[in-house]
Structure formats: C-alpha cells, structure tokens
Amino acid sequence: AMAALGLCRAFGALLLSAGPRRARPPALPPSPQHWLPGPVSAPAACRGLGGSAPRCTTDPLWKCRTKYTVRPVGMKKTGGRDHTGRLRVRGIGGGHKRRYRMIDFQRLRYEEGAPPEPFTEKVISVRYDPCRSADIALVAGGNRKRWIIATENMQPGNSITNSPHISRMAVSASEGDAYPLGALPVGTLICNLESHPGKGAQYIRAAGTCGMLLRKVNGTAIVQLPSKRHMQVLETCVATVGRVSNVDHNKRVIGKAGRNRWLGKRPHTGLWHRKGGWAGRKIKPLPPMKSYVNLPRVKAVE
Amino acid sequence: VFPGVRQAQWLTKTKLVEGLPPAVQGIMDNPALELQELEERAKHMVSHARLWDTAEAAPRRERYCPVLFENLIHICRLMSGKYPSLSKRMLARNCRVAAMWERESILLQVRGLSGILMNSMSPIPPVSSKEEILATKEHVLETFYPIAPTIDLQEVNVYKELNDTGFRDGYPYSYPHTLFFLESANVRTDRFRPEQLRAKMLMFAFGNALAKAKALHGNDPKVLEQPVVVQSIGTDGQLFQFMVFQLNTTDLVSNDGVKNLVWVDSDQNLYERAQCVPEVKKGVVTKPAGISGFQPDTFKKFLALYLHGTV
C-alpha cells in the first residue's frame, strides 16, 4: 500500500497520460456523453462512431505497475492530452521515446522485515534519466536496489546513510545522506525535501537546485526554496544533503529547433501579441512563508 | 551489480585461484598426446561449425554453438583409442539438478536444468593437496557491506528440501565429471556476460558437487575426507571459460573453517574472427575469408579438462 502510494505520488510529477485506444476490454464504465456548446473540435479519441463529443478514454494505461522494479518501464506519451482525450497543455508532443525508471523519492523506505534504524547504501552507478533534468543513481543496500535522484558529487562506490533519528547535536552530514531536518545543522544545502513526514520528496528535485535550512523553531524547520520562498515543515521531514546533480543543466545551449523537438516540445504559436501586464520584470515582495505545519491555534478565549 | 563470481564465492564459501590447477597443466604439457595434429582437426571443426554448416551466408549462433561443441567432443572422444578408460563416460542433456544448503541462517538452493553434463564411472581425484585445503582456513571471505550477499536472488517458497543429483542410485556413471554451458541465444541481451556465465558455472558446479557429496556421505555438514571435484566449461561459441571446482566441506553455515576451492581460467578465445565473406574495402581485401587467430592453447585446455581423471 505504501509502495503504491509512493508510486502514485511519483507519477503525479508526470503528466496524466491518456491512450486514445479503445482496444482495452470494456471493464471501465463509459462516461456520460458531454454535449459541448460552441464549435465542436474533433478530439483525438473520435473514431467515427457518430456524435462528436469525446467519450471517456481509458485511464493512464501505462501507469498500472504497483510493484517496484529497477528495470526501465515502457511509457506512453500523452501529447498534452488528459484523461478525456482533449488537449490540456499546449506545446507537448513528439520527441524521442523514453522509458521510465521508477525513482524512489522516499529515502527512508525500509525493506520488508527491516527495523526502522539508520542504514547505509552503496552507490552502484550514476546515469542520465530521460524523464527529468537531474541524473539518477542506482543504489543498493541489504537485499534491494533502487533508483534515487543523484546529488552533485555522487560517484559509483560511495556510501550514503539514511537515518530517522534526531539528536540534540547536529549531525555533520556528508553529501548524499538523508537525515531529518531537525538533525541537520542550520545553513546546510539540501534537496529532495518532503512537505509532510513520510510523503516522499516533492520539492527541490530539478538539476542543480538546492534549498537552504534557515532556522529551526520549536519542532519545525524553515527552509528556503530555490524560488526564494520560505517553507515551514516539521523537523521530522527527511531531506538529502547537497545540490542535485547535473549542475550545468541551465548553461546548456539548445542550438537548434530540432533539439527542442527531440525533447518533446512543440513550437510556440507565431501570432504576434501586444505585451500586456504579464510581460517584463517584476519586483515584488516575497510571498508569505508557506507553512505545512498544523500548529494548534492558541486562542485566549475566556 | 558487481561481478557475479564474487557473490557466488560468498554463497558457496569458495576461494578463487587464478589459472588452472597444476594437474591439468601437467596433462597439457604432456608431449605424449600429440596435440599438433589435433590442432589441424580443431581448426577444421571450427571452420565447419562457423562457416560451412549452413545454406545461408553465415550460421547463427544458435546453430554454430552446439555444432562446435559437438565437434570438439568428437575430437576428444577420438582419444579413447589410447586411453580406454575414456569410454566410461556418458553425456546427459537437460538433466535436472537440485541442491540445498544453508549459509549463515539463510537457506539457499540451486535448482534447474544444468546444461549438458558429462558423467563418469570413477570420480576425479582431488586436485589440491591437503596442505592447500587446510590453508584455506585462513582465507577470509569478502563481505559486501552494505549490500547483502543474497541480493538479486529470487525468493521462493520451498516445500521440500531437495538434494538430487538427477540420477537414481545404482546408475553406473554416477560421478559428475564436467558441465558444459552453451550460451547460444542469438540476441546479445539474452546471453550471459562472461562474468555472469562464470558465476552460473560456479553455482551449478557447486550444486552438482554438493548433491553428489550429500548422496555419498549423508546430509550432515562436515569436512569431506575425499573432496569432490567437478569441472565446468562455458562458452558462447568463441570465448571459453574453464573452471575446476573442488568441494572440500559441506559445512557452509559458518564463515570460518575449511573453504572450497575453485580454479578459474577465464576469457580464452578459441579464434579471433571467422569471416564467411571476405571484407573488401575500396577494392582491397582487408579481412580474408576463413578462421583467423586460432589459439591452440584453448583447445588444449579443453582436451586436458576432458582427459583429467583418466590420464
């Protein structure tokens, strides 16, 4: 159950896919037909069955794997379409075929039958991942192997530790280790941050990014995200130490339109728009700190 | 993950020795064997398997690998004119072997079709001396912390702990002599890599040896007085891996004590390349058709392993 939950959250980072095939056995009930007002577009799922509204195409077909595996899984491209089959996000389509490697974002995932104690793992290889900008590392510990997001100076043969304990003294963490925020010294660069303990890393995962631990207050910690926004989380949330790998990712030069097409990005519209209020540099105060901690509201109500 | 042979060594409590044992080397260097003319035959056989065997341009690996193996065995069998005890051997294909042992409170087992097995009526004498066997006591098996040595092994529910050589009692050819593994899948990803092949050879040789030892001496773990020796040869048609495994002890629960021994000679090329059609670049023949780079040593080792135990 935990594994499936973790996997679903991992998939949340990817787009919802929709295969416009109806060869699947009709186990899913068809959705009620929508008669849309206005010009009816020919949806991708239309098969000339009469009626011009999209039927509910089947759910993400390729995301049905519950068991974790290290082997790359074949994935289907969506082209920006959602589960109804209509275009939801523009500019996506084509590109080189990719296979998805299941990344484990929850660093403190214990094996079955293993006690919840600090454990070490060894990095076996670091490789390019076609599905994200960061590199991924294959680590092995105990009886299992898994993929994790690699940090900046990770080399094959390193050892990384994962520990859930928070002690009074801050741990001098080396790069790649995963500790709860309460155990790290203030001012460390971290990545792969969780908002709630046990949820799995959802923040600071892109290439070269890092957040900084600003201060620790009561049982919470305040982290500065790469967008300079402040985030308050419980100190038991686990993060890895260091910057994410592939640091020069933003310095690369695409070079030609074809390379963008290989990455799966379709061209922008060529229509000239007059610049409205959206364009140009903005100087704004920082948005307020985002808190993921439900503090008990102390109200002095007599 | 890491070379499979190291993991197989830990699982079978084995010490690795590079190169073939001196007994086999002695057979190879024995001048009475007239290996020169056999070289001619061996070249002929390689050409037959790789070049001439088919109506299409070039035979595929599924075809030439077993054909080459058959031809090499044929040459070896021709020697039985000189050594009559060679005729007391038989080949078995697709025989099922099962061995089960405990390793530091983890139950392990080897089961499955073990390729091609050659049995003989008399066992191979122990290859190493008593001193070497006792010297293995000091050898420390390497650990793979933090990786558990049982990584990448399939977890299976076993309902019967089975130790089976694959043959019933009373069979005249009862001692496993040599195992042959042919990697003959056409696609490279289906074949085992050399180190994976060596690990597979080690595990199956160990399985056969253990099953035989348990059949001879009973199921109790102990140090064997008469070590059981099993050889194995693995190939993918061009690269040969030779291995001599000696089972010294069935006491595999603890990490100390006498260890088993294995002599490995790896990555022996029988020939460099076999061109069916001469490669011509710009009107000049760069690679002529035929077998080039034939290594007689590899064939000598093959023959030596075959003759081991009778010479």
From TrEMBL, chain A:
Its main location: mitochondrion. GO terms for biological process: mitochondrial translation. Residues 173-292 form the Large ribosomal subunit protein uL2 C-terminal domain. One of its GO terms (cellular component) is mitochondrial large ribosomal subunit. It holds the Pfam family Ribosomal_L2_C. Residues 80-162 form the Large ribosomal subunit protein uL2 RNA-binding domain. It comes from the Eukaryota. SUPFAM superfamilies: Nucleic acid-binding proteins, Translation proteins SH3-like domain. One of its GO terms (molecular function) is RNA binding. Coiled coil: none annotated. Gene3D superfamilies: 2.30.30.30, Nucleic acid-binding proteins, Ribosomal protein L2, domain 3. Residues 1-23 form the signal peptide. This is Large ribosomal subunit protein uL2.
From TrEMBL, chain B:
InterPro entries: mtLSU_mL37 (IPR052482), Ribosomal_mL37/mL65 (IPR010793). GO terms for biological process: translation. Its main location: mitochondrion. It is found in: Mitochondrion. GO terms for cellular component: mitochondrion; ribonucleoprotein complex; ribosome. Coiled coil: none annotated. The keyword Mitochondrion applies. Keywords: Mitochondrion, Ribonucleoprotein, Ribosomal protein, Transit peptide. The keyword Ribonucleoprotein applies. GO terms for molecular function: structural constituent of ribosome. Belongs to the mitochondrion-specific ribosomal protein mL37 family. This is Large ribosomal subunit protein mL37. It comes from Loxia curvirostra.
